[in-house]
Write a structure and sequence with these properties.
Largest sheet: 6 strands, antiparallel, barrel
Order of helices and strands: HEEEEEEEHHEEEEEEEEEHHEEEEE
Structural class: alpha+beta
Strand content: 35-45%
CATH architecture of the largest domain: Beta Barrel
Shape: elongated
Number of strands: 21
Distance between the termini: 47 Å
CATH class of the largest domain: Mainly Beta
Strand order of the largest sheet: 3-12-15-14-13-16
Radius of gyration: 46 Å
Number of helices: 5
Number of domains: 4
């Protein structure tokens, strides 16, 4: 009997220890009290709606200076960042070969002129022979066939003279062509501007057989630049000329630059199935801080409203825990450009229907009869609002 009692006592003690351990390990976790919402308020101020994009800065007018003749670069009179004026000599191609060709063309012209003069002498001689035979024919001293032969010789000499004159015209054209080619060995700046690229060095040979090689790239005026950006077709309908633009570049992350939309080009570009349109934004660059090729993060201002009531965007997305039937009833009551905000009341959160205006980056314009500045509204719980109530003991997590 005593053994049986001892057994039950030991069993009860073991069970109690197991329950105590289980409670200690699993029942000692911190309790989390998550709030259902946080409080915000309706404010008054301005809202700007933007379309965001990225683009590349470039000069408004850029001219690529090339060569129309082939040859070796003999001299360079401009370099990177050089300021040039229209008509300045900026490069020289070795003209030796072209001077020789021009001299050859001059010699050919003189030879053609001599051949023309010789042909003219032949015309005069044939004319004298014809006149002499005509006089003799009147006296019946020569036959008619001799006169005809003299006429043919005279006409042949006249035609030969015309051929020689045409040859002179050909040689003059060839000489003029060689003069132009010789002039092309001197490369002049076509505009006033700044050299932003030099693609050749002294001693390098350029070949212009298929297309004109680029020697320099000249930007006309770096105080006026443009951004070429691409806007998705979903937003292009909101983009118009002269809209205000704010943008930043990585080189000056704390500085904001401004510009204006100058053109929306009609040529579409399709990338990965997405249609985009090229927008040109003109920018003032008086201090020359912006450089060609910089990447610009652009915000095109498409709408602006001032002195209006607004709420955080998250307030319009917040929905408290409600039965599905109740949520369905509320959804059926709103129309396009309408929504609900939730107002704390005596019995909990109460829905208030509002009209939605333009949406900014963080806030949205609202309007309605019962809205007032400073009115408290419900919003999603903020991060870190979870309150932990810790019991005593050891927590493993």
């Amino acid at each position: 009997m005593n053994k049986r009692r001892t057994f039950w006592i030991i069993a009860i003690v073991v069970i109690a220890m197991v329950l105590a351990g289980a409670w200690f390990l699993f029942g000692n976790r911190p309790e989390e009290a998550k709030p259902e919402y946080s409080l915000g308020k309706i404010t008054r101020g301005n809202i700007v709606s933007n379309v965001s994009a990225t683009g590349t800065l470039s000069p408004v007018i850029t001219v690529q200076v090339g060569s129309q003749v082939s040859g070796t670069i003999q001299h360079l009179y401009a370099d990177f960042n050089s300021r040039v004026k229209k008509g300045d000599l900026i490069a020289q191609i070795d003209p030796s070969l072209f001077k020789a060709r021009l001299a050859e063309a001059d010699a050919n012209l003189k030879s053609a002129q001599a051949a023309r003069d010789k042909a003219w002498v032949g015309v005069l001689d044939a004319k004298r022979q014809l006149d002499r035979l005509k006089e003799l024919e009147k006296k019946s001293l020569v036959s008619e066939s001799d006169v005809d032969a003299a006429k043919f010789a005279h006409e042949t000499a006249v035609v030969e003279h015309k051929v020689k004159q045409a040859a002179i015209a050909q040689t003059v054209a060839a000489r003029d062509r060689e003069k132009v080619n010789l002039a092309y060995t001197s490369i002049f700046a076509p505009i006033n501007g700044v050299v932003i690229s030099r693609d050749v060095d002294v001693g390098q040979t350029v070949a212009a057989s298929l297309q004109a090689p680029t020697l320099f790239t000249i930007a006309q005026d770096l105080t006026h630049m443009q951004i070429e950006t691409e806007v998705d077709e979903a937003f292009i309908g909101n983009i118009n000329n002269d809209q205000h633009v704010n943008f930043t570049v990585f080189a000056y992350q704390k500085r904001k630059f401004t510009g204006r939309v100058a053109q929306v080009r009609l040529n579409p570009k399709v990338e990965a199935g997405v249609v985009k349109y090229n927008c040109i934004i003109h920018v003032d660059n008086d201090d020359l801080a912006l450089k060609p090729g910089m990447t610009a993060t652009v915000a095109i201002e498409i709408a602006r409203n001032e002195d209006i009531l607004k709420v955080p965007n998250t307030a319009l997305r917040f929905v408290p825990a409600l039965p599905p039937e109740r949520l369905k009833q509320l959804r059926n009551k709103i129309k396009t450009n309408e929504g609900f905000i939730w107002i704390p009341g005596d019995t909990g959160l109460e829905p208030l229907k509002v009209s939605i205006g333009i949406t900014g980056e963080k806030e949205t314009e609202i309007s309605g009869d019962k809205l007032t500045e400073g009115m408290p509204i419900a919003m999603p719980p903020k991060r870190g609002d979870t309150k932990r109530k810790r019991r005593f003991g050891l927590s493993l997590f």
